[in-house]
Amino acid sequence: MVSAQKKQTLTIRFNNRFGNEQLLPEQTYSLNNTDTLVVNRFKYYISNIQLTNTEGKTIIPENQYFLVDIADEKSLSIQLNIPEGKYTGIRFLLGVDSIRNVSGVQTEALDPLHGMFWTWNSGYIMAKLEGTASSSMIAGKQFTYHIGGFRKHHNTTRLIQLQSPAFTDSITIIADAAKWFNGINISKEPVCHSPGTLAVRFADNYSKMFSIAVKE
Amino acid sequence: MRYQKTIIALLLLSILCTGWMYMGNYFAPTPVRFLVPKGWPQPVYNFKENPLTKEGIELGRQLFYDTRLSKDGTISCGTCHQQFGAFNTYDHPLSHGFNNSLTTRNAPGLFNLAWQKEFMWDGGINHLDLQPLAPITAENEMAESLVTVIKKLQAEKEYRKLFKAAFGDETINTQRLTRAISQFLLTFISSNSKYDRVKMGLDSFILPEKLGYEIFQKKCVSCHTEPFFTDYSYRNIGMPVDPFLKDLGRMKITSESNDSLKFRVPSLRNVMRTFPYGHDGRFFSVLSVMEHYRKNMVISATTDSLLRNRLPLSNFEIGQLTAFLYTLTDSSFLQNPHLAAPGKGISTTAPADIHNK
Fold it and tell me: Considering CB atoms only, which of A103, A107, A195 is closest to B173?
């Protein structure tokens, strides 16, 4: 009989920021010293989490889907049941894998009532960033970026791989929303509401928004 | 005997216990077999994930006809999908939505959905269970949020009972809501038209119908493929873009320019009941559709290769084709009391049957 491996709970905290500042709803931030931004919504899906332990072995916990939302304090930390040990790497998918995009109506974090699902063009919004910007030229000076698309050329899920100093039961991941704007001109591109090349540019941007927080 | 009473009591007790154990099964939903009409392929819907049950279908029927699913409580699925129009919006190019709004596309008839992989004129929806979410939430349809729909249903004792009967407990969520509606929709099978009876050797075409069927097989069947009378593909049939709707069809979903102005080939089953025709309902009669094919098509880069020279049709051919199209009307489907609004079906007098006047 295989000895039952001891389990432990790993807490992953998401620390959402805009540049170096804490990201909070309806707060004002400056972008490139030229633009003033208010962020109203910032949500993204995390799934398919894997861990690498200090021996280089990959641990694949049972797949779960999490919706991180700055307006929902509870969503900012997630718990995983993992084998006891020391870990140095974490890998996850930002977004929802294609199979869940073509399998009808899902439950819990993937329930379409969270407003992260396109009803007219079936598929999940992998991540969402909304707010106002002084440079926006549309009604209400808004920008709304709903990034989705799971098919080949328009795939907006991104595999994130992060290395960390050894951790056992907790790790904090920084998500910097300012990274979304790399190469984006808000006055020309205030809205992204469908799969396509613009959504893919945002996906490439948010693939670089994560880093491991260094313990103070 | 001294022990007789005790033995009888024990026996009774064990019968009661067994009965109690079977009670659980008694309250389990009653499975319903999905019958594939003779000669038809297997359905594409995944019944394993959502097995049909009597209680699930009944719940779906309640939901389909419940106006509380809309924001102001005036519109149900059945408002725009009317049984006498094979579940289209009868005699309406576009349908009426919340607060005097109009939809941008024609509400198609609903039937044989178990064989359909993608939904909407542009195929944007990839699963039957997902389909109801679009009309429920669209601002120009039922205009309600899913969160509110679920709350409204949870507040109704009657619905909690119905969900328990269908799914085993009182949980009401989006998945159960849409699965119940799917179960009801999956029972919309139209396979009893005169055409079907002829195919089964139970009836015969009169001469114009027979001639029409021959013309149909030469000129129409490559897209309106039997037995569904659609091949479920997306094609540009030369309908110029409406300047107000600016609807580019399939291209909106794929972002591919060669999908511009392509729309799904509609089924021709019950076609004489599903007027007006076209994705925006611009054709008010079968005759105007025929006129479009032979004269009015606008040929562009994405026009279907089969229609490059339009579709030549003589007046005689149009007459015979029309006679054939009448044989696709399925009166038993249009009058099936199990598909009518709850409480209205069984006792309602059936409308006139066009085949048996």
Answer: A107
